[in-house]
Amino acid sequence: MAARDRSFCDRLGHQRGVPSVPGQVSFYGPRDRFGASLRRELSTGPKGFPVYTWSTEQVDPRDRFDYWREVRAKGLFGVTAELEPEHRRDFFGEFSLRQLGGAGLVELRASPYRVERRAGDIADAASDSLCIYQQLGGGGWFGGARLDEFAVRDGMFATSYSDLPYRTVPLREDGFHLRIIKIPVTDIVPPGTELGELVPSPVQDETALQPLLESCFHDLVDGNGAAAADPAPMVQALAHIALIERGVMRPKSRLAQQALRTAHLSLARRLIRRHLSNAALTPTLIAGLLGISVRHLHILFEETEMSFSETVTALRLAQSRRLLREQPRQTIAEVAYACGFESLATFYRLFNASESMTPGDYRA
User: Fold this and answer.
1) For residue range 322-354, what is the model confidence (pLDDT) as tens digits?
2) pTM for the whole thing?
3) CATH topology of domain 276-363
């Protein structure tokens, strides 16, 4: 072995392998590899979740792609990475990994290279998981022996079963930028359900399920609402919405109906936040946007700690507190109307009841 190759392997040392979020799930492969190294590199991300981050900036430029290919691509993602030798010195890659209620969330950004999940990769790093992807930038092409070729543009979602072969390359020179939530199959499907035909496929924009899947996905990524305290139910709802969209789960089944309720509630809250400044925000407006009845909307909120109107008020008060802190040039009245309160008197009454002080005292 050449001296440079030995040096590279020496630098890899015990880090060659697969990281596991302490005590829980690894993205691919055994749970006990890479554990000590991972714990040293953990930081605290949004909402207090531990986040594992890594970048090729930590590696000698001569070795960056080799390290990425042999340790990160094979060990973490269970794929084979390829890049022409003349482009390897300029290669850049970074990712973050976070646990979400038994699932793993990875965000990856890298300069262009070819990716393939081969039979050997699957044998070495089997996962038995549902993968849900969101393309954040660059776009990507997918192909393989068992699937129709397709491309995903920015913002699109795709789903697949982890242990099937595929090939992918970025569509633009800015490379890869995507998020993946990987959910172990044992946590989401009834015994006997097979996902072996779930080849990579884009989530169709025209389906009514797409905004529901997107809302659940973003609640998990952002740590919104109930997902901040306990991500597991939202992870399960996201997985089941994906399986309904792929035709694996019957929409009328008990698990599917529960997932649809969770997803509709997630999207309802997102729509409320989007229309918060509208003083005419009503259950009728939100129900219409969701495509459900007003009665159905109220039933969704009855299963939570706050009714529809209480949720709207709480979100408006939270928004008003933020504006009072961050926008000192706005008058109290401007803050009130920006948050959708119908009158200044209503804002003062509700703010006093919530904070036991006036908006002016709070700002001071």
Assistant:
1) 999 999 999 999 999 999 999 999 999 999 999
2) 0.84
3) Arc Repressor Mutant, subunit A (1.10.10)
